[in-house]
Amino acid sequence: MSGQTMHVVIVGGHGNVSMRLTRLLTARPDTHVTSIFRNPSHTAEIAETGATPVVLSLEDASVAEFADAFRTAQADVVYFSAGAGGKGGPERTKKVDEEGAIKVFDAIEALEEDKRPRLIMVSALDVRDPDGPIPEHYDETDKKHSARIRAVIGGYVAAKYAADKNLISRSAFKWTILRPGGLTHEPGTGKGAIGRTHLGRQISRDDVAQTLYLLLEREDAAGLGIDLAGGDDSLEGALDAFIKKGVSDFAG
């Protein structure tokens, strides 16, 4: 899209990963970022990143209001990086992480066909059908880790799975799902493990934001779920190899 402005919308714009991503995107030439978030008190902080702030609640706003926001922003790409963050209990987790995501999907579909943006969805590693087979590459440590996470934040995992399951059934717009593992606040390294990863290695929020940034230009990642964890591979090189392989990590 050289010479043309890329219009990007981030839903859940005040999150830790989203703020890092916003700074990367606003520093990119010919890129305009609209950041959608719930709390009006965050407006000045969002504006300082160079993004256009838009206050809109995933819980309260309608599909039509989100569609209007995407239309006004002339969105080419929408990132969904929102989440309840464990606040408000399981009901709010379902409201934001599942129903809020589906509201965004519906809003994209409500746009004119030639105006529908590509969606890059932030989900989580090991989000899968709890009644389905365990991924073949999991070792015993992975299986114990998976069981432990589900025991602690099972409602979150279930909400993410429901949203992702809904998304993969859609063909009216292009989508990609990034599935990062446990997150840290450590400085990014530009390295990680991508594709069929193990569960125990955490990854920096900086590196998740960097991977999301790289996906902006990767329309060829459409239809893929991409596992991301800590590791030693170049993020750019590993992402390129994964996309060329073309096999999704989301088992459905």
Number of strands: 10
What distance lies between the first and last C-alpha atoms, to the nearest angstrom? 32 Å
Mean pLDDT: 95
Main-sheet strand order equals: 3-2-1-4-5-6-10-8
Instruction: Please describe the biggest sheet, giving its number of strands, its sense, and whether it closes into a barrel.
Output: 8 strands, mixed
The residue ranges in which pLDDT falls below 50 over 5 or more consecutive positions are none
Radius of gyration from the alpha-carbon trace, in angstroms:
17 Å
Strand content: 15-25%
Order of helices and strands: EHEHEHEHEHEEEEHEH
Separate helix tally: 7
Shape: globular
- Helix-strand category: alpha/beta
User: Helicity range of the residues?
Assistant: 40-55%
Could you describe the 3D structure shown?
- The structure is a single chain.
- This protein is α/β, with parallel strands linked by helices.
- The protein has helices at 16-26, 43-48, 63-73, 89-110, 140-168, 205-215, 235-245, and strands at residues 6-11, 31-37, 52-55, 77-80, 118-122, 175-180, 183-184, 191-194, 203-204, 225-234.
- The strands form two sheets. Strands 3-2-1-4-5-6-10-8 form an eight-stranded mixed β-sheet, sandwiched between helices.
- Helix 1 crosses helix 6.
- The protein is globular.
- The model has no long low-confidence stretch (mean pLDDT 95).
